[in-house]
Amino acid sequence: MASQSNGQKRSITIQNQGAGHSSTLTLTGDILRVRREEWKDIQVPVRNVVWSEYVDGKLEVSVLAKRGKNASFSLVRLTTAVDEAQREAVTEFVDALTKLSYRGPQKPRRLKVLINPHSGPGKAPLLFKRKVEPLFRAARCELDITYTTRRNHAADLMQDIPLGTYDAVVVISGDGLIHEVLNGFAQHKNPLAAFRIPVAPIPAGSGNALALNLLGLEEGVDVSTAALNAVKGRAIPFDLFSFVQKDTRVFSFFSQCVGLMAELDLWTEHLRFLGSGRFVVGYLTGIIKRKACPVKIHIKVGQSDKDAIYKTFREERAKALEASHREIDDSSEEDPIPSESTIPPLRYVSVKPEEEEGWISFEKATSFFYAGNGPYVSVDLMQFPAALPGDGYIDVVIHEQVSRGKMLSAMDEASAGAGFWLPEQHYFKAEAYRIEPLSTNSCLSVDGEGFDFEPFHVEVHKGLARVLSPYGYYNADFFPKSSPS
Ligand SMILES: Nc1ncnc2c1ncn2[C@@H]1O[C@H](COP(=O)(O)OP(=O)(O)OP(=O)(O)O)[C@@H](O)[C@H]1O
Q1: Is residue 118 lining ligand 1, measured as CB closer than 6 Å?
Q2: Ligand 1 atom showing the smallest separation from residue 272 Cα
Q3: Which end of the chain has fewer CB atoms surrounding its CB within 10 Å, N or C?
Q4: Is any atom of ligand 1 closer than 6 Å to the C-beta of 265?
Q5: Tens digit of pLDDT for each residue in 292-310?
Q6: What is the pTM of this model?
Q7: Domain at 2-102: CATH code
């Protein structure tokens, strides 16, 4: 055995007498390296450490690693008996590793797991068994598993979810089931407390925008990294939106959309096998049709100057990034529940926008109106690059009706948010908005689900819900103005 620690580097070599092979673990800054005689070397950032412990003379370290150039992440578990003489050194090493990898106490979580066998291509149960459950078990999580059997099953369960019993609700499906979970919380007898239960998305649906935004383009499509987020991600405040139409009030967590971007979803329903590629086909169809979206739009504007929005975004992102490196102690984890026990009242639903200060009307011919709470709406489109999870605003994009050529060029670098800077794309940070259709000739979708194309009102509830995030912010950054290509 050899154990060394010098400054940023700690290394420990364990000679396993019985099996006759040795394992060396080296921690250099934020990187853990595992060498074991019969294995290929493994090198991972400490945030990929799932669990590490030394109990009863046995060391166990589980990590998520890519074992091959194009491989996806998989769980790698090192278990080895440790000689009594090494006890102190191994304990020290594991303590250092745990502290770094969890940035605080390593605690097994109690997870309510919802699996939708009918989401996306129907692989959620298989992904759970193969990738998610082994990782949860390695992290000692306590699991309460439900396979949803029908529409609204998850909402009904969330309506009665016992408080103080779960550290998170894990949703193995797409955005539709997240929408259901949050609307279930809203029906709880103590909705504000229910909304404080963090939601952790695991992408298994056809639209997985929340996972994509929290984890980023690469990890947001990876089931294992999303499962790791459920195990050790931090709860962050997350804005929700009341969507009010006639007498119905629904909580939307992600988007509302009118015109082209809502219609293309319908036009390409039969092309689901193309994955998110179907939206590209839909947009191209939209260019050919070049249909107008006749609506009256009123917005309660927080910010509308693009340079100022970009500046605020950069500042907020830098703050969140800095906070994500800080160690977290138990007290900073406390999230007091407000004393009221009803859903927040609507503040703007009865105002007359034309007469109110702070509201503007948008009059130009429009091809679509899109409001959302996360940069990526799909891997190909960063529609709301300046979106922040809990800033108290919904990001609004209104796309003027322009020539087919301009519509086509709006596709350039769309996945990196370059459209933000186009003069025909109007971008607002809004506290509320109101839409009145001027014809019946379009459609409306809320969190990807179709709604009647009739007048509706939306307003923001700042930080009402919680989501788990590995970074504390959306893992997406976009083009500054000076380099849009
Ligand atoms: N067992 C089930 N059978 C049918 N529908 C279900 C079942 N369990 C859940 N659902 C419904 O399936 C929908 C899943 O939507 P979600 O977005 O999570 O997955 P998806 O495959 O991406 O969906 P979509 O392709 O319709 O957008 C939810 O509205 C939910 O009510």
Answers
A1: yes
A2: 25
A3: C
A4: no
A5: 888 999 999 999 999 999 9
A6: 0.93
A7: 2.30.29.30
- Amino acid residing at 96: A
Q: Which atom of ligand 1 lies at the shortest distance from residue 116's CA? A: 8
pLDDT digits (tens, 9 = 90+) for 343-370: 999 999 999 999 999 999 998 888 899 9
What residues does each domain of the chain span?
2-102, 110-232, 244-469
Kindly give the distance from the C-alpha atom of residue 209 to the centroid of ligand 1, in angstroms, as a whole number: 15
244-469: CATH number: 2.60.200.40
ipTM of the complex as predicted: 0.96
Q: How many CB atoms lie within 10 A of CB 20?
A: 8
